[in-house]
């Protein structure tokens, strides 16, 4: 496997860090764009394992850190679900220019919701796969439900997610309330594969239905 560390310009103009895993032999069967989970990174174990499984089967996989996370530039507190979708579209454009446009989009958790929302904006994508994704992006708010009142009153608040501190602004809440995936799924006209554990305690299996 050949690994390339790459940077590209995200939705807000920040430089985002990515990693492209390419099979050593022959042309890739296709390029896959992977979106990590909420507050995660391209290097979380799930992303690494999925990328490895795909390149072993001949696919090139591009995974990146959303704005303000991992090795990417930017301030996480200024991001929204819409900016995540924009980062995904920017990543696809970067792949299109430097290698080949992605034909498969994969997203984990909120990243799954983001690939569903962005699929219609990436015409070359033929298939979408979600892993433990919420049916409604607003589901992610349960991670900091106790702080919602403070966020709405003060405009922002520091919350703890996965043992790490993050600052969430009211703009994040306002943006995510305006998103519905039903229309995106209905209109994307691409193959859809949904992976969801029946014992998922973070995103209930009901979201897969």
Report the count of strand segments.
9
Strand order of the largest sheet: 1-2-4-3-5-6-9
Query: What's the overall average pLDDT, rounded?
Result: 95
How many strands, what sense, and barrel or not for the largest sheet? 7 strands, mixed
Helix-strand string: EEEHEHEHEHEEHHE
Query: What is the oligomeric state here?
Result: single chain
Structural class: alpha/beta
Poorly predicted regions are: none
Q: What's the shape?
A: globular
What's the total helix number? 6
Output the CATH class name. Answer: Alpha Beta
Radius of gyration: 16 Å
State the main characteristics:
seven-stranded mixed sheet; alpha/beta; two-stranded antiparallel ribbon; 9 strands; Rossmann fold; 209 residues
Summarize the structure.
The protein is an alpha/beta fold and 209 residues long. The chain has a single domain, classed as Alpha/Beta hydrolase fold, catalytic domain (Rossmann fold).
Description:
The protein is α/β, with parallel strands linked by helices. The protein has one domain: 3-Layer(aba) Sandwich (Rossmann fold). Helix content is 29%, strand content 25%. It is built from six helices and nine strands; from the N terminus they run βββαβαβαβαββααβ. The chain has helices at 45-55, 81-98, 110-118, 148-154, 170-177, 181-188, and strands at residues 2-9, 15-22, 31-35, 60-64, 104-108, 127-131, 156-161, 164-169, 191-195. The strands form two sheets. Strands 1-2-4-3-5-6-9 form a seven-stranded mixed sheet, sandwiched between helices. Strand 7 and strand 8 (164-169) form a beta hairpin. Helix 2 crosses helix 3 and helix 3 crosses helix 6.
């Amino acid at each position: 496997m050949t690994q390339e560390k790459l940077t590209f310009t995200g939705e807000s103009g920040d430089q985002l860090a990515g990693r492209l895993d390419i099979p050593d032999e022959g042309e890739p069967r296709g390029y896959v764009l992977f979106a990590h989970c909420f507050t995660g990174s391209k290097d979380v174990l799930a992303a690494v394992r999925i990328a490895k499984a795909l390149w072993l089967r001949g696919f090139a996989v591009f995974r990146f850190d959303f704005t303000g996370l991992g090795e990417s530039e930017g301030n996480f507190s200024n991001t929204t679900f819409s900016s995540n979708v924009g980062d995904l579209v920017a990543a696809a454009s970067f792949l299109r220019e430097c290698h080949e446009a992605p034909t498969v989009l994969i997203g984990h958790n909120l990243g799954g919701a983001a690939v569903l929302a962005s699929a219609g904006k990436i015409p070359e994508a033929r298939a979408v796969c979600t892993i433990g994704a919420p049916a409604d992006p607003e589901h992610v708010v349960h991670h900091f439900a106790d702080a919602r009142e403070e966020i709405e009153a003060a405009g922002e608040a520091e919350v703890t997610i996965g043992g790490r501190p993050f600052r969430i602004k009211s703009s994040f809440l306002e943006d995510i309330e305006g998103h519905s995936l039903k229309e995106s799924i209905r209109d994307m006209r691409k193959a859809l594969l949904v992976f969801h554990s029946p014992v998922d305690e973070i995103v209930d299996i009901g979201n897969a239905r």
